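User: Structure please.
Assistant: Input sequence and predicted structure:
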Amino acid sequence: MRGRKPDLKAIEGGLSRLPPAPSWLPTEGKAEWRRVVPALKDRRTITKADLPMLEAYCLAAGTVRRAQATIAAEGDIITTDKGGSRRHPAFQTLFQALTESRRLASELGLTPASRNKAAPSESDDELGDLDL
């Protein structure tokens, strides 16, 4: 697609008000909730059924921050019980949470690419000229 990208459209049932962050979310997850909710509310692209996905995204994003803080505080490499060294175990958590947060961010329309996706127009229909 060339030129200006289409804007995301409010969806039927899109919430104009979103609840506060769930109390069970860790501090970092609540911070992410407060960061992304205003844009989601303004665009009205989230329905009540999408709230668990938003919670999961915020949990994953918070986990990324906590894992990175652990690595920053304890170092990239740890010493094993046998005296060897290896990568900090928090890297596994970091990579898994990054993967999940990226996937969920895309689903929620929080990435530039996902915000620019639009439903195909009738002119994009390859079968449009067939009388089906």
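Residues 27-115 form one domain.
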